[in-house]
Design a protein that fits this description.
heterodimer; A: 101 residues; mainly alpha; 6 helices; globular; B: 290 residues; alpha+beta; 5-stranded mixed beta sheet; flat; disordered C terminus
Chain lengths: 101, 290
């Protein structure tokens, strides 16, 4: 099966999520993209099943005295698409550093 | 999903969220609000973002949440209207308007436009029944086994839709033929008349062919486009087993195609409308729920 072709922006966002930047604000900060680009792109990636989202457990967020966040995770199809995108845009790998936990 | 109390946000943020939330479809509004309340809370408490001015950050996030809400709204429209008969008719109408505007704009006004088109329109009107006859007579006819649900008002709905498409296709073909011939009309009026009829016939035949094919690719029940082809059975080597392709629309009605080898007793493949089966399944499900 051919890997689906992603735009450079979508590939950059997918790459950021695959490297551990798993919520909107984090992705915005590391990619430098405006929120008007990042959030709709996340929705599209979720619709196309490249990423899936889940809510952070309430207890975890309450313990840190903040509201629960919506986390994004790359799916198997998303990993294949991210790999194909890295081959198509070789500089992508250098644009986003891996997240330090 | 468990609910938490909304995080405390500045009044301006809350007001903005309240206004923009109206753009979001009702089913997704609550989750959208919750997600954006969290994002805005984190934006205000984020150290890394403090190098940017608060106004710039807020403006950026306002654009973000508005575009996110608009995306959800357009996506909901896309899911609702894609493949519907209404969208098909509206799209054809839109194309007619665009094609007419291309002719109308260089003309001085509506009156000049009408006067210049009079003769061309008469010729095309004369050719139209002939084109319709040729298009429908040469169209391949699917042998569809109809259930009781496929007659009556469903048949009327199908014919009304096909007629609507055919009329719009003819008008569009006429408008396009005029658009193409308009630039050379001043220099070569007689030749242009001939070419205008030629283009009208060509566009009409292509358009009507599309209209008939499109009609065959639609559900007999609700006129939605049929999609998601699924193979049923498998082609047999000894010709004793059967196979088919089931197509279904968004509402779950379907059409089952059973390919046949052409023989003296069976000259074409069979197309079976599946709505009776579907309705029975739905009824059973309702009974179970009840």
């Amino acid at each position: 099966m051919n890997a689906p072709r992603l735009s450079h922006t979508a590939a950059l966002i997918l790459k950021a999520i695959s490297l551990g930047y798993c919520y909107g604000l984090d992705v915005m900060e590391i990619t430098g993209l405006p929120s008007g680009t990042v959030y709709p792109a996340l929705r599209r990636l979720e619709r196309d099943e490249f990423v899936e989202s889940k809510w952070e457990p309430e207890e975890q967020a309450t313990a840190k005295q903040r509201p629960a966040r919506r986390y994004y995770e790359v799916t198997r199809e998303g990993k294949a698409a991210a790999f194909a995108a890295t081959q198509r845009y070789p500089l992508l790998a250098h644009l986003v550093p891996e997240k330090r936990s | 999903m468990s609910q938490t109390s909304a995080p405390t946000l500045p009044p301006l943020d809350r007001k903005l969220l309240g206004v923009v939330a109206r753009l979001v479809p009702l089913a997704e509004r609550e989750e959208w609000s919750r997600a954006w309340q969290a994002e805005l809370w984190h934006m205000h408490h984020r150290k890394g973002l403090r190098h940017r001015s608060a106004l710039m950050t807020m403006a950026d996030f306002s654009i973000g949440l508005t575009r996110d809400a608009l995306w959800l709204r357009t996506e909901s429209w896309r899911r609702t209207f894609t493949g519907t008969a209404g969208l098909c008719i509206v799209s054809l109408f839109g194309l007619i308007v665009i094609a007419s505007l291309i002719t109308l704009v260089p003309q001085a006004g509506l009156r000049a436009f009408g006067a210049s088109l009079g003769q061309q329109f008469d010729r095309s009107l004369f050719a139209a029944p002939l084109i319709l006859f040729v298009a429908f007579a040469s169209a391949s006819n699917r042998h569809i086994e109809r259930g009781p649900q496929s007659r009556g008002r469903f048949w009327i709905k199908q014919q009304a839709f096909l007629s609507g498409k055919a009329v719009q296709v003819l008008i569009l073909a006429f408008a396009l033929s005029v658009d193409i011939c308009q630039p050379m009309r001043q220099a070569l009026p007689d030749t242009t008349d001939f070419f205008q009829v030629f283009w009208f016939v060509l566009f009409s035949l292509i358009g009507l062919r599309w209209a008939i094919n499109d009609q065959e690719q639609r559900c007999r029940h609700c006129l939605q486009s049929l999609a998601t082809p699924a193979r049923v059975g498998r082609p047999s080597h000894n010709l004793l087993e059967w196979n088919g392709t089931e197509l279904s629309c968004k509402r779950g009605h379907g059409l089952l195609s059973i390919p046949e080898m052409e023989t003296s007793w069976c000259q074409s493949s069979r197309w079976i409308v599946l709505e009776a089966y579907r309705l029975r399944v739905d009824e059973d499900r309702y009974l179970e729920i009840g």
